[in-house]
Amino acid sequence: MSTQFSTPDQPDTRTSARSHLHQVFGYAEFRGRQADIIDSVVQGASVLALMPTGGGKSLCYQIPALIREGTAIVISPLIALMRDQVDALAQNGVRAAVLNSSQSAEEQQAVEASLRNGGLDLLYVAPERLLQTKTRHLLEQVNIALFAIDEAHCVSQWGHDFRPEYLNIHQVTTRHPEVPCIALTATADKQTRQDIIKHLLGESAQVFIDSFDRPNIRYRIGQKTNAKEQLLRFIQLEHPDDAGIVYCGSRKKTETLAEWLCGKGLNALPYHAGLSPEERQTHQDQFIHEEGLIMCATIAFGMGIDKPNVRFVAHLDVPKSIEAYYQETGRAGRDGLPSDAWMVYGLNDIIQVRRLLGPTLASNPLERQRLEAMLAFLEHAECRRPVLLGYFNEDHPGQCGGCDNCLSPPKTWDATEAAQKALSCIFRTGQRYGATHIIDVLQGRLSDRITRLGHDQLSTFGIGRELNKHTWFSVLRQLLAKGYIEPDPEGHGGLQLSEQSRALLRGEESLFCRVDALASAQSPKPAQSTTENSDPLWQALKAWRLEMAHELGVPPYVIFHDRTLQAIIEARPDDLEELGQIHGVGRHKLERYGEAVLEVMWSTPR
Ligand code: ADP
Ligand code: ZN
User: Fold this and answer.
1) What are the pLDDT digits (tens) for 518-563?
2) Fewest CB within 10 A of the end CB: N or C in the chain?
3) Helices (DSSP H) in 126-276: which residue ranges?
4) Nearest ligand 1 atom, CA 30
5) Looking at the 3D structure of the chain, how many domains does it have?
């Protein structure tokens, strides 16, 4: 944390940045590298800021926009998000506006006029709009404080979010060589980084990399028994009133799951690319504007969702890569409060992934690697954070205390001999049967099918009686995950040996397996520890906030974050002055809502 805000050489900008942080945004301290980034931009440098989701990128250009003379031009690809930001800024008394083609001609003229009059601190535009000739002309006539390019990774053709217009942004920015430019992103691989510098900033750019760790997110990955019931239990026990996202692998599944959850008394909606644009928009708006809604979604949902109080992200299917998992889970807990990333998976999930790995991805080694890494991550038996952060070239010492493996370290056992038995059983039965049959043979079960096939005559019949069915499943799953066996390419559900299995069979390699724990049994304590959901004051403040939000047509968190409400409950301020000291209560919000909040507090019985 940077608390060093007055260096001897530039005491003024740092002090000024800090006082904006307090007075406008109501926050006590800068996070991570915010102070350094802001300082550089205020000084006029070009800056690349790499910060995790929820790291606080927006302040890195919003505060310089307030300190530097003129208007900051913010280029962002996500129109819904721009509107949210402008609403949130207005709540803090900052003069911001959006310019886009969905506005009426009058609205656009009004925005342009206040831009010309110097009446805006920030102007948000989409890249297409920025590149239009009339916008370029407009910008030549005004005083620009800085350019901020959000989601800067969109400039890279390597990523999934490539947007060709990003390649042309520099045509505009280079027309204003004296104006500093800050590019921001949460996607940080090396290639993307280089592309951003090359196409958006130039070689002289200063690069700031924040830690990508999300210490407030607790990662838990468990075994699937009955996924829906496990999920329900998790939500009921740990997040009964919270907003969350449940990622599912198929459109159909998002719908059936949402319906099922509603049947259980929860508030859930589906979201996927097959819904009409209107439906998608309504569901997304509901998620943002209501409290405690659960979105059952495919990966079509996520980018541009800036809701700070998503308390959990659950996965019922295995993501395509560790990066995808990290990005999806990263949508939890942007406000810094304890949040959960929760996932269950089973043998069949691994078979599905392995199938994908076969013929479809034979020609795509990179994609294969990503999936392999994801599978290994699932079965990982030590702290999960070093693996996650490794993807951002960041070292983590492990023992984070905030992942399943740290919270209840899994027991491992030497499964080499068991694995050898399983492998030879797969071989002797002809590499065409699925897990249940293999286990039946191993356990020496005399079923009709087995006698008919003559599998009771095999040397491997009954050699695995010492382990129960559950353990055999676990061994087979881990053999699959580690690539010693694979599903048959025809997709009949049979298991085959891979090249890699030879070394294990010959005893040149050994295999350690984790002892499976059930996901539902792994909940040490709810993540939401600060405020009890049943606290009447918490309920009252939330109700007041929701009403206010509806009245103003903004999302509740734009009024006050959960974290601010919690701080109010803890501090129980006696007057406006004390209320003004609280995290998230800036000058403007104090004026607007101070009285009302005190009233709610004093009228709620303790
Ligand atoms: P992202 O990096 O994902 O764009 P945001 O800029 O939306 O993150 O910030 C995430 C949340 O953290 C916002 O609600 C923001 O107000 C809050 N935030 C940012 N900086 C600070 C800070 N220094 N102290 C407290 N909260 C902060
Ligand atoms: Zn850990």
Assistant:
1) 544 344 455 544 556 678 888 889 889 998 898 888 889 999 999 9
2) C
3) 127-131, 133-140, 169-173, 190-196, 227-238, 251-263
4) 23
5) 4
